[in-house]
Design brief:
This protein has 298 residues and is of the alpha+beta class. It contains ten helices and eleven strands. It has two domains: 159 residues, Ribosomal Protein S5, domain 2, CATH 3.30.230; 115 residues, 2-Layer Sandwich (Alpha-Beta Plaits), CATH 3.30.70. The two termini are 13 Å apart.
Amino acid sequence: MREIRILAFAKVNLRLDILGRRPDAYHELRTIFQTISLHDEVRLRGTKTAGICLNISGDQSLSLEPVRKNLVYRAVDALRRELDMRGGVEIDLHKKIPAGRGLGGGSSDAAAALRGYLQLIRAKIPEARLMEIAASLGADVPFFLFGGRALGIGRGDEIYPLLDIPKLSLLVVSPSNIHVPTPDAYRWLKAPALTKIRSASKLWKFCSLCWSAQGSGLSNDFERPVFQRHPRLARVKRALLQRGATEASLAGSGSAVFGVFPSPAMARRAAVGFQDEQTFVCETVSRDRYLRKVQSTP
């Protein structure tokens, strides 16, 4: 039976600016996404039995949740409905990206499932329609159809590829027992209503920075409210800087924190100082490399 294997890479936000609260109750944001080498793995196989069978390993709590809630299941189900497919599919999802840490694992898994299922059944749909399906699954999912470095606007689901920056060595620290639900992070932020006057200067500053091919420094508007409620995360950031990181930032809305290091060796040495936390030494992944890696591999 034919099998498709797809890697699903994590992301960090190099910048994340919240411009304000929109009339539809969502928040208007500007962010710069960057894929990193930490990844999950998705395998898909056609089956003679109808329906979708999803097996999850590597994350016990996720494996105990109803499979129909999982974004991988929902992604493949959406494509099967779109294409009116009747044949069954078995999916193995092996998790390495910690869930609920702002690293985009669930969204990346969904995008990998979309690409992988189309490869499995040897089908194509217009890219614009694929983007619509991805956006319906979650705000970050469209980004993972591109990878690399990209600008996200609106809710983060409108994506514009940016110039890649030179490869960076990262240490991602995922503190145990701290989970930051994204809705809570937005509520703690207490963003004002979106107005042209209030957001104009912030928006122009963001635009001037995001086109730089050299990067522009890390920034995340979620840090202040999240660190206030979880001081341990602020201590992790300080420790990263003390251990040699040139920069450090909260990943998305958290709770993972990452540091940028001059070399992989320095990142590995720094990881030794976080014995009580889960750590990942990784690197940024350019768009070309990302698109090669997310194709089906043996």
